[in-house]
Every structure is written in structure tokens, then in C-alpha cells.
Amino acid sequence: MILVRMVFQAKFGTGGKLAATLSEASGPLGAELGTLRRWRVLTDLSGSFDTVVQEVEVESLAEWEKFRIKLFELTAFRDSMAVVSELVVSGHNELWTVEAQG
Fold first, then answer.
1. What pLDDT was estimated at residue 32?
2. CA angle in degrees (0–180, nearest 5) for 79-81-83
3. Averaged pLDDT score across all residues of the chain
């Protein structure tokens, strides 16, 4: 299992709006992609202000690559990213191997 984390540094004071935008988009995009994967949106309690993380678990890197290609083809994704791009200063992706779950 692979945990995909997209870490966004929002413009100061816009972390809440970014989290809401990502949350609103996650459900419809998942449904449109035909996946039942659980997406999570996290906001900071410590560290850099206005950090927002969106994460999803996938079975493999191959599955993530296929999923990502489909995602970028969706009009709804492109529309939501237009809003996100106005709120974000920087960001990065993290790919983690899930070794155990409780």
C-alpha cells in the first residue's frame, strides 16, 4: 500500500479556504474516477502556518500513475486547481510505503 501526500503551503490566512476547496473537490473527483479510495484533507496544528495536506492510499505506484493520468484529464479537477493555484505559495508530493496499519 502506498500513501500519497500532497503538501501545500497556502498563502497566509488562506489555509482554511484551501482545505475547504480540496475537501469539496475530493468526493466528486473520486466518484468521477470510479474509485472508492478515501481521501483525507489535513490542516496544521503546529509547524508552518497555513499548511494543508491532501492524502490518499493506493495499492501501488502503478495504480497512482494511472489514477493521476485520469485525474488530470477531468474538467472538474482542472477547475478546482484553478482555485487552488490562487491560494498556494508552494507544495510538494510525498510517497510513503505503508508498512503496518492498526
1. 63
2. 80
3. 88
